[in-house]
Specification:
Elements: E1 19-26, H1 33-45, E2 51-58, H2 65-75, E3 79-83, H3 90-100, E4 105-109, H4 120-123, E5 132-137, H5 144-161, E6 172-176, H6 177-183, H7 193-203, E7 208-213, H8 228-252
Parallel strand pairs: 1-2, 1-4, 2-3, 5-7
Antiparallel strand pairs: 4-6, 5-6
Bound molecules: guanosine-5'-triphosphate and magnesium ion.
Length: about 260
């Protein structure tokens, strides 16, 4: 099979992405992070980019993740490690990854290896027509309970802030960095960051393309999406986001 990133496909010249910063949030991912970084690096290597970097955002991990991230950064100059002294949450990790990114395009994916970075080749050519190319999970490789939770959450997000993207929380996003800078600082520390990001991009008029991607089971570690504190924070931040997004609009309505 010839993918868009494959020189045999003859489309490499058409790909507008020449340099890319991959951002990988990682909280206690000692069982996954090395494999994930290796896979991401190999995938990016195969795309014929001019330059790239892989940024591991260790979000105050209590396991071997920080040491592994440092060792990989030491061994490969294209890998960088960013550390949070304390755990800040998924949104905090995404934000510091975005801040650390130096190249024109940012590829956000999870440090737990649930996505296949080779599929970035499918997203890249679409960057020609959209400044945000985001994945949606064709089939979620999660347990039924987790899937129900995720579905409910997606409905709540849709109702509360009105986002019409198929899979808001899919951690497979290619974004033009200048548009990230343009939308201004993101504020959520938790899972709401994904909704905040898409909402702000939409308000800024950024064209978003959606692409089906695969999703693989977690190989090691435990999912934290169902942690009651994570959920409580998500709801708090969702309400805050709604307020923030609706205020300017109502203020502009002439009386
Ligand atoms: N949950 C969580 N994840 C974090 C945090 N900081 C960074 N991450 C990373 O964010 C990514 C997504 O978290 P996951 O717990 O895998 O969430 P998920 O993929 O929606 O669900 P599961 O994989 O089923 O847990 C992973 O790579 C985590 O390591 C944090 O404070 N909480
Ligand atoms: Mg995961």
């Amino acid at each position: 099979v010839c993918s868009a990133g494959d020189p045999r496909a003859g489309t490499v010249m058409a790909v507008p992405v020449r340099e890319l910063s991959a951002v990988l949030p990682a909280h206690d991912e000692e069982g996954n992070i090395e494999r994930t970084v290796r896979e991401v690096t190999a995938a990016l290597d195969g795309l014929g980019l001019d330059r790239f970097e892989v940024i591991v955002v260790d979000d105050g991990s209590a396991d071997a993740t920080p040491a592994l991230a440092d060792a990989m950064a030491e061994a490969d100059p294209r890998v960088r490690a960013v550390h949070h002294p304390r755990n800040r949450g998924y949104g905090g990790a995404v934000r510091s990854g975005f801040d650390a990114a130096r190249y024109d395009w940012v590829f956000l994916t999870d440090g737990d290896g649930q996505f296949d970075p080779a599929e970035l080749a499918v997203l890249l050519p679409l960057a020609d027509e959209a400044d945000a190319v985001v994945g949606y999970r064709r089939d979620r490789a999660d347990h039924a309970g987790r899937r129900v939770n995720a579905w409910l959450w997606a409905q709540v997000v849709r109702l509360v802030v009105g986002i019409h993207v198929r899979d808001v929380d899919c951690a497979f996003k290619l974004l033009r960095r200048s548009r990230l800078v343009e939308v201004g600082p993101l504020e959520a520390d938790g899972a709401v960051i994904s909704a905040e990001l898409l909402l702000k991009l939409d308000r800024a008029g950024v064209v978003v393309r959606q692409v089906p991607v695969s999703h693989r089971p977690r190989q090691a570690g435990t999912p934290s999406g169902a942690d009651p504190r994570v959920i409580a924070r998500a709801f708090r931040e969702l309400v805050r986001l709604r307020r923030a997004m609706h205020q300017p609009a109502t203020a502009l309505v002439p009386d």
